[in-house]
Design brief:
heterodimer, A: 239 residues, mainly alpha, MetI-like fold, elongated, B: 290 residues, alpha/beta, D-Maltodextrin-Binding Protein, domain 2, 2 domains, nine-stranded mixed beta sheet, three-stranded antiparallel beta sheet, globular
């Protein structure tokens, strides 16, 4: 038992303290955060755009269909089909080695690939939120003289956000964990840092268990924040 | 989660391929172009029964009657995937002959290079044979057999690059390497220790991807072992190997420190193969003299 403990202690020392290796994890988690935040911004913007276009198309009256909207809608459908139909890792490899094969901005490539990927999923989540609001509310708003954007912004979206918050939180957590895939394009994120330390020390236990705990801690914090936000949004439910 | 499903599937396919690895009679030289995609599928080794099997000799192997070889099959001509889905290369053939001598069947476990030594240490594989250089730090973690080949780390650059010698690497260049290789260890060392620092090194999961990055211009040079370098340059136009060598090293087979009996058995078999010229024949078959 004693030897096991001293063994673990020396492994811990090798994996985290020796040669200031903890700094590598810190730098790695910084990259993971940067990629997550950047991808989140792209994902949400893309998601809202695609979701609004698709609901706009789906909810128009069958008597007067607009052609241009139909074309844009098809493009959006194509986007979600391709992105949801191919693995994240394959998308990263294509972005890293085919489309941006000469780019040295690996963080940029990672943000763009994860953002585009996340956008497709976010779009479907937001679309489900908008669809969950009775079309009667839109009709009521329009007949009161508000324009489409105002009704969307002030009436539909606020209600939709509350409905989709759990699903959006889920997507954020998935996005954060998916950053571990960027190792394939050579970016040193948290997972790559652990792999490199493992390759130097030949100790797998501490680096991998260590980063698992780091990922878990971040996800637990995100979940907590999501809980607070949900509670805040429920405040006006009953009065 | 669903995004990982594809990875699991790829892993399962690789396991089923690994089962039929071992025998290889493919023609010498001319390795398949850019095995990057296939090599990416990582073999998470099928759960080998923990029960240590007793063979006729005194040594034990991970699975009864089998010699599991941990390698990274994207390192031509030492190890690579053959067109029929098996494995071939100098290391694979030498290992096959060692296994024959020991009365075992060779099973190739393809994984990332960084995991090769760990998998031997943790008892998932019997021998680590992946163009593995003997270094001080590695000797603390595994036992090595006799050296069976000499490796030279060289620098690959695009034609017309302003990098002419090793010294030019220091001029704020981005260097591509393979994860966990000696090339990575030397280049990523701090400047005081003769390296270029982590910021000047991008490490890829295998050599072919580093070459791909070099071709695209993501990195200015790739530091990798000489023989794979030749194989990569042969199939990619516009790349050349610098005449100045980066460092000279010895390749050997890594075996767990907990298994001295197996180490001795493998080492003896290897010595016999070196003595009767079999190793040289295999090396000559893949590496044509200049």
């Amino acid at each position: 038992m004693g030897t096991l403990f001293s063994d673990l202690a020396s492994q811990f020392h090798q994996s985290f303290i020796e040669a200031d290796r903890w700094q590598r994890y810190l730098a790695g988690i910084g990259v993971s955060f940067t990629v997550t935040l950047g991808a989140l911004c792209i994902g949400v913007i893309l998601g809202i755009l695609v979701a609004v276009i698709r609901t706009l198309h789906d909810q128009q009256r069958s008597t007067d269909r607009r052609v241009l909207l139909g074309i844009i809608n098809k493009i959006c459908e194509f986007y979600t089909t391709v992105i949801r139909g191919t693995p994240m890792m394959v998308q990263l490899l294509i972005m890293g080695f085919v489309i941006f094969r000469s780019s040295r901005n690996l963080v940029g490539v990672a943000i763009l690939s994860l953002g585009i990927n996340s956008g497709a999923y976010t779009a479907e989540i937001i679309r489900s939120g908008i669809m969950s609001i009775d079309p009667g509310q839109m009709e009521a708003g329009r007949s009161l003289g508000m324009d489409y954007i105002t009704v969307m912004k002030d009436i539909i979206i606020p209600q939709a956000i509350k409905n989709i918050l759990p699903a959006l939180g889920n997507e954020l957590i998935t996005l954060f964990k998916d950053t571990s895939l960027v190792t394939v394009i050579g970016l040193t994120d948290l997972t790559k840092a652990a792999q490199q330390i493992q390759a130097k020390t030949y100790q797998a236990f501490m680096p991998y268990i260590g980063i698992a705990i780091m990922y878990l801690t971040v996800v637990m914090i995100l979940t907590k924040l999501q809980g607070i936000l949900e509670r805040r949004m429920r405040q006006s439910d009953r009065r | 989660m669903k995004k990982y499903f594809a990875m699991i599937l790829a892993g399962m396919m690789a396991v089923s391929l690994a089962a039929c690895g071992g025998s290889s009679n493919a023609p010498a030289a001319a390795p398949a172009a850019e095995p990057a995609a296939e090599a990416e599928a990582q073999t998470e080794e099928a759960e080998a029964p923990e029960a240590e099997a007793q063979t006729d000799a005194a040594f034990t192997t991970v699975a009864a009657g089998e010699l599991h070889m941990a390698t990274n099959a994207a390192f031509p001509p030492y190890e690579m995937t053959s067109d029929n889905g098996g494995y071939e290369g100098i290391d694979v053939e030498i290992a096959t002959m060692i296994a024959q001598k020991l009365g075992l069947e060779l099973v190739v476990d393809d994984m990332e290079f960084g995991s090769v030594i760990t998998s031997v240490q943790s008892g998932k594989a019997d021998i680590a044979m992946a163009g593995l250089t003997v270094t001080e730090e590695r000797m603390k973690n595994v036992d090595f057999t006799e050296s069976y080949a000499t490796g030279v780390q060289v620098i690959i650059v695009p034609e017309g690059s302003d990098i002419q010698t090793v010294d030019d690497l220091a001029n704020d260049k981005m260097i591509g390497v393979q994860d966990g290789t000696t090339g990575y260890i030397y280049c990523s060392a701090p400047v005081e220790d003769g390296g270029y620092g982590e910021d000047h090194v991008t490490s890829y999961t295998n050599g072919a991807m580093a070459i791909e990055a070099l071709k695209g211009g993501k990195v200015d040079a790739v530091v990798i072992d000489n023989e794979p370098a030749k194989a990569f340059v042969a199939v990619n136009d516009g790349l050349k190997i610098l005449d100045t060598e980066y460092i000279v090293e010895n390749y050997a087979i890594g075996i767990s420190k907990d298994n001295p009996a197996l180490r001795d058995a493998v080492n003896n078999a290897l010595k016999e193969l070196i003595a009767d010229g079999s190793v040289q024949t295999i090396v000559d078959k893949y590496i044509t003299a200049e």
